[in-house]
Amino acid sequence: MDKGLIIFDVGGVLRNSSLALNEGYRRGFASFGMSYGFDALDTWHLRGLARYNGGLECMKALLAFEHSGESIKEVLRNPDAELIIGGLIERHLRADDVEIAKKIESIYRKYFHSDEAKKLVTLFPGTDGIMAELKENGYELAIFSNSVKATIERDLMEVDIGRFSMVLSEEDVKRKKPSGEGITTIMKALGMSRKRTFYIGDAVSDVQAAKDAGCISIAVLWGMGTRTQLERAKPDMIFVDLAEARDYFVGRRG
């Protein structure tokens, strides 16, 4: 029986890339002779915010935290973290920081997508087995990520990629998340309705993308997003991890 379509984000859902991400940032800061005092969990959770999910805005935020001495961990405990970080950027970003942020982002991306970074990326426990179980229980599976396809394939080498009917990356869409374009594209291609499609992500932008596409939004808590920020985004469901999500899906009647 076809029970519906489950679309997965990759980073923070299927793979733990927090160490590789943080190492890329550290290298970017080091290239300018700058100190870097952030730990991997804090920078990962910063990326869990929609506005700072990646790119230039995230680099600007890190520079503002470095200059101000404020704690990422403490700021992210506040439901209004995005507004607070915006204020830090406004007050503490220096005249040449935007150009520095662009160069740090370039260094980070080059490292993160390299074979060297793969050594710091791991699959979350049980990922392949959970995918197999969902497939066996009648679900169609797909992937939509803001990452590049080569990196998705690099990090999912231990997963049977053939179980996924479609794999969409940032190269396949005009608008990345928080746009729901990728999710909508998959639903249309596979002939699945919004009511029978689930999108599983770990960041606020994932919840926003699912809502934009009109499908059922699910957040997991072992990735980028903190519970405080994800609850504020109001996904339809929140699970601790993929195992808890699997238990829900396997128990559904369809």
Architecture overview:
Helix content is 50%, strand content 13%. It is an alpha/beta fold and 254 residues long. The chain has two domains: 4-16 and 121-251, HAD superfamily/HAD-like (Rossmann fold); 18-118. Strand 6 (197-201), helix 11 (204-213) and strand 7 (216-220) form a beta-alpha-beta unit. Helix 1 (18-30) crosses helix 6, helix 3 crosses helix 6 (97-112) and helix 8 (127-136) packs parallel to helix 13. The longest helix is centred in the middle third of the chain and has 16 residues, at 97-112. The radius of gyration is 18 Å and the shape is globular. The protein starts with a strand and ends with a helix.
What is the C-alpha radius of gyration, as a whole number of Å? 18 Å
- Biggest beta sheet attributes: 6 strands, parallel
CATH classification, class level of the largest domain = Alpha Beta
Our measurement of the CA-to-CA distance between the termini, rounded to an integer number of angstroms, reads 8 Å
CATH architecture of the largest domain: 3-Layer(aba) Sandwich
Shape category = globular
Structural class: alpha/beta
CATH topology term of the largest domain:
Rossmann fold
Structurally, the number of domains stands at: 2
The ordered H/E elements are: EEHHHHHHHEHEHEHEHEHEH
- What percent of residues are in strands? 5-15%
Percentage of residues assigned to helices: 40-55%
The helix count comes to 13
Uncertain runs:
none
**Averaging pLDDT over every residue, what do you get?**
95
Q: What spatial order of strands do you see in the largest sheet?
A: 5-4-1-6-7-8
By CATH, the superfamily of the largest domain comes out as HAD superfamily/HAD-like
Extended strand count: 8
